[in-house]
Please model this.
Amino acid sequence: MKELLLLLLLVTEASSRSNSSWCRPGCDCRGDLKFTICSRARFTHLPSRVPPTTELLDLSDNNISVIPERSFSKNRKLRILLLQNNNISVVEDGCFSQLEFLQKLDLSWNRISSLTEGFSLGLAFLRELQLAHNRLSSLDSRSFLHLDGLQRLNLTCNSIHTIQVRSFSSMSTLRQLHLQDNQLTSLRSGIFSMLRSLEVLNVAGNQISETEMGVFKPLTSMTLLNLADNLMSTVYFKSFLNIHTYSTHILLEGNPWNCDCDLQRVFRKLRSIQRLFLDDYYNLTCQEPPVLKDYRLMDVDTELCLAETVTVLIITVTVVITVLAAMLMGERKRKKKKKGKHWTQQGELSDESDY
Model:
């Protein structure tokens, strides 16, 4: 028994020495060299020595600034690559092109300001991409060109103000898109045209004041639409009517609503659609008109619309009475004129008979 225990200790020690020979100082290699942890190692460059059998590589919380081309050519078995919280500002074309098995890439909390076509080369089987807390300002058709299998994309807390129509055109399998806390001012028709598998669309915390009527129509799988904390004062009924899903939950709290009667009608109709759920309707507050500021939308519903209806009714009745009176006066004048003409003709006939 003692001999067996001694043998196991010798094998473990030999394995540990073998593992340590592969690991660069500052890294910890575990699980038969499948997990390489180099977090908080104060690296300024990617480590040159990483076990080729590594499936999870954690390089978070370092000072890496550049990801060179073909950086991971010796680590083709990588499935998870964590690069969050570095100083990365340059991602060279083809830097991930050898990672055909990569499923998760985390580049959040860096300084990336643009994405070229070569950024996504080789990432056809990537499932999750984290780009939150970077410096992206716009997205175009080249940004995510090769991400055919992506299911989750997180772009939270960038400075994105422009999304071109074909920016997400390759992402037919995308299920979650997080765009909250950016600088979008509107949602134009066509930008989500290929996202038929999308279930969660989060655009909260932007500056959106307008959504075009057909923008949500392609999203036939959407279960959650978050439009909270934007600059929307009104909504178009058809914008949400075009959501053809079995069940969609919509969040609208924190917008400066203009609580006129038109808005009330829109929300009344939206709430009557069984497949749409306005989860935070009871928390919506008015910004306009000034007399209703900070009132809850639901509290001014009946009173506001009743007052407007009565006003419209009074105006309508007044107009109808005026028109009828004018018609009656006209008819009287016509008859009076006709009668006067008849007596004149009778008088002329009487004068002629005297002769």
